[in-house]
Design brief:
By secondary structure, the chain is an alpha/beta fold. 45% of the residues lie in helices and 11% in strands.
Length: 341
């Protein structure tokens, strides 16, 4: 069983995006807003949107189950207000639910949270609970910067996040730390803003005692942990300077990295530096980098090739492909049992 912990619905049928465009337009035009209705999307449209993309690639690459969430760059929490974000998030999450109903062997859901700049994270707890309890989702994507590149929210260790963490702990679901699009031209969304956010979140976890307060809280930092594995010595040194416990006990019982690193030397470094039990297989396909690497002739985001091509033992590869995901997303076990049953 190969579980890909990081996939987005980047190919959603057109009416879904048309709704969003209309919703945004409606923010300045009450007449447009008055005509906003849930888009009609047929099962066939959903099938079509996946068959030529995520499903085709799953089959071609030999992966089984994708932990699937709404398109991250389109979360755009900075647009509109709390209600805008709630309406859009519910719509996106409901669409993921339909995907998971149509292809229960291929996808399991993770939700988008209805965050909004200046709005307490506590307000996202109800949608998380709905998605987990009613839609069978197993985690969420948490945006540390709902402002979209201006970083106006308090750090992840701030007490204002605690009510949301309490709900995550109660539901026993992890969060992937995942920003959305950037509206700051200094930061390209996938090339800079994403990687910055990954690195930023890790440093925030070092600075505080968040995991003393929440010993079972779990985060996945995507994109291979941003710059962290490459700068592991810097972070170990900073932990010492800041009089924090060693990273392995202070942060790494609660924080996991995925394998969305798009070249073999990068993956080799990740596997060498970060404990194997902290690494989950992920590809982020179809997503950030869609092309074929001219140096290898294979898709940049075909990350299974890099794990296969590493010098890890078969047992360690199995942990990365399956075992670690089962630990970090405990609700996946029930899902897998249903499939077997
Ligand atoms: Zn992503």
């Amino acid at each position: 069983m190969i579980i890909d912990c990081h996939g987005h619905y980047t190919t959603a049928p057109a009416p879904h995006d048309e709704f969003r465009q209309k919703q945004i337009k409606g923010l300045d035009d009450p007449k447009v807003m008055a005509t906003l209705v849930r888009p009609e999307i047929s099962d066939d449209q959903i099938r079509e949107s996946l068959e030529g993309a995520q499903l085709k690639l799953q089959r071609a690459r030999g992966t089984d189950l994708t932990i699937f969430s709404p398109r991250a760059s389109a979360m755009a929490h900075h647009i509109g207000n709390e209600e805008t974000s709630l309406t859009w998030s519910r719509l996106c999450n409901d669409l993921i639910y339909r995907v998971c109903q149509l292809y229960p062997e291929n996808f399991v859901g993770v939700c988008q949270l209805p965050q909004s700049p200046g709005v307490p994270p506590q307000h996202s707890a109800a949608e998380l609970e709905r998605c987990v309890r009613e839609l069978g989702f197993i985690g969420c994507n948490l945006n540390p910067d709902p402002s979209g590149g201006h970083w106006t929210a308090p750090p992840l260790y701030d007490k204002s996040w605690y009510p949301l963490y309490e709900k995550m702990v109660e539901l026993d679901v992890p969060a992937m730390v995942h920003v959305s699009g950037s509206c700051n031209p200094c930061f390209h969304a996938t090339g800079a803003h994403y990687i910055n956010a990954d690195t930023t979140a890790f440093m925030q976890f070092i600075e505080a005692d968040l995991f003393k307060d929440f010993p079972t809280l779990r985060f996945i930092i995507p994109h291979g942990g941003g710059a962290v594995p490459y700068h592991w010595g810097r972070y170990r040194g900073l932990a010492e300077m800041l009089k924090r416990p060693p990273l392995i006990e202070h942060v790494m019982k609660n924080v996991f990295f995925d394998t969305c690193v798009y070249h073999q030397p990068g993956i080799d470094l990740l596997l060498k530096v970060i404990p194997i039990e902290n690494i989950l297989f992920g590809s982020e396909m179809v997503g950030a980098v869609r092309g074929i690497d001219p140096e290898t002739g294979h898709y940049f985001d075909d990350t299974k090739r890099y794990i296969d091509g590493s010098s890890l033992s078969a047992a360690d590869k199995t942990r990365i492909f399956e075992g670690n995901a089962r630990r970090v997303y405990p609700r996946i076990a029930a899902k897998l049992d249903t499939l077997k049953g």
